[in-house]
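Researcher: Quick test of sequence recovery. Tokens follow.
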């Protein structure tokens, strides 16, 4: 029964892919416009089908899709409501490459894990990707291995653009803060909740820390974007470091600071914050303004 339900769900997602965001059957696209796709949380399942639960709380990394998109639209004098001759789909921040069936333009998205979900991941006859920029070289490598054209694809996670968008309020900095992956909550001191209804306040907390210890990828990216040293806490969602390698490799680091506990992280030398200006330039120069052409 579960196999039949899964096959029905997959078929439904494929048939309605132009009308929905990613695979969320109750989150509809706007016809003949550019549609921003992003991963809302929390999610709920009914009868094996994935729905978006209405809430103002979002995972920080995913929720930043909206302010980044608005910034790029304003920067390029574009209207999100412009009517076009077809429905178009844009994937940006987050591990979205294998999260939807749409013919999509990729700008800064990544792959979540080493072995993605096969039925969306494998290149197929009904889905094409226009790849302008991806999160890191590991995503680019895996796309190339699966037959996608990445010849002119650049590298950069859109999270590194946040200092161009928002200047945090700096008060008294605390010695360190801990950010846990949204699926790995633990009680500990000096925590910043990555699931938030106020991304500005969350960024303020990050910027007002002298060190970030994080098992959330965007906890690390946002910290470093604002010049705060960060150490990866090895309490990741499933132990797969693919997406973390993807980001770190994009900054030229083949090795990076990682701790098994907060105590271990506090005893380690503070890592240098990388120069992210090249990644920022890559993103600014590859934003697909041509999607708004009729």
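Model:
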């Amino acid at each position: 029964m579960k196999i039949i339900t899964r096959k029905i769900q997959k078929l439904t997602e494929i048939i309605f892919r132009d009308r929905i965001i990613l695979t969320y059957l109750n989150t509809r696209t706007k016809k003949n416009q550019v549609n921003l796709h992003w991963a809302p949380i929390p999610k709920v399942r009914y009868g094996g089908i994935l729905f978006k639960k209405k809430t103002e709380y979002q995972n920080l990394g995913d929720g930043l899709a909206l302010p980044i998109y608005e910034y790029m639209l304003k920067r390029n004098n574009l209207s999100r409501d412009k009517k076009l001759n077809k429905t178009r789909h844009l994937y940006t921040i987050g591990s979205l490459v294998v999260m939807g069936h749409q013919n999509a333009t990729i700008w800064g998205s990544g792959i979540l894990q080493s072995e993605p979900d096969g039925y969306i991941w494998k290149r197929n006859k009904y889905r094409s990707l226009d790849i302008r920029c991806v999160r890191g070289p590991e995503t680019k490598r895996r796309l190339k291995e699966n037959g996608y054209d990445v010849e002119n694809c650049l590298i950069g996670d859109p999270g590194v653009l946040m200092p161009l968008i928002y200047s945090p309020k700096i008060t008294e900095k605390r010695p360190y803060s801990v950010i846990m992956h949204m699926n790995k909550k633990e009680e500990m001191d000096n925590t910043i909740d990555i699931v938030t209804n106020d991304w500005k306040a969350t960024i303020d907390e990050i910027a007002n820390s002298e060190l970030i210890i994080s098992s959330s990828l965007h906890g690390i990216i946002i910290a470093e974007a604002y010049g705060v040293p960060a150490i990866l806490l090895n309490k990741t969602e499933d132990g797969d470091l693919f997406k973390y390698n993807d980001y770190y490799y994009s900054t030229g680091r083949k090795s990076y600071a990682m701790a098994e506990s907060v105590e271990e992280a506090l005893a380690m030398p503070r890592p240098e914050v990388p120069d992210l200006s090249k990644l920022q330039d890559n993103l600014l120069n590859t934003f697909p303004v041509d999607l708004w052409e009729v």
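DSSP finds eleven helices and 15 strands in the chain.
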